[in-house]
């Protein structure tokens, strides 16, 4: 389960993360992180955008399994990265 930093500290706009999974998605690639500062879309509000490593975050969604999916423009390998919200 992803640690939801955006709920713990809404002022946190960047942090070190671990990419745990990256799968193809209709809009690009869906990345799951061990923790996230990105707020997902919901309640009529769009998801945050920004960067994970050198990939652009296009959207952030909550999957049916309640996991946070970071939709990015390119695949990233599992491992450490820097995440930053625009």
Note the overall shape. Answer: globular
How do the strands of the widest beta sheet line up side by side? 2-3-7-6-5-8
User: Structural class of the helices, strands and pairings?
Assistant: mainly beta
Largest sheet: 6 strands, antiparallel, barrel
Rg from alpha-carbon coordinates: 11 Å
What is the helix content? under 10%
Q: Determine the number of helices (DSSP H or I, runs of at least 4 residues).
A: 1
Stretches where pLDDT is under 50 for at least 5 consecutive residues are: none
Arithmetic mean pLDDT: 94
Keywords:
mainly beta; six-stranded antiparallel β-barrel; globular
What does this structure look like?
The protein has 86 residues and is mainly β. It has one helix and eight strands; from the N terminus they run E-H-E-E-E-E-E-E-E. The strands form two sheets. Strands 2-3-7-6-5-8 form a six-stranded antiparallel beta barrel. A hairpin with a 5-residue loop joins strand 6 and strand 7. The longest helix has 4 residues. The model has no long low-confidence stretch (mean pLDDT 94).
SSE order and pairing:
Elements: E1 3-4, H1 5-8, E2 14-25, E3 28-33, E4 35-36, E5 50-52, E6 55-62, E7 68-72, E8 79-85
Parallel strand pairs: 1-4
Antiparallel strand pairs: 2-3, 2-8, 3-7, 5-6, 5-8, 6-7
Give a brief outline of the structure.
The protein contains 1 helix and 8 strands. By secondary structure, the chain is mainly beta.
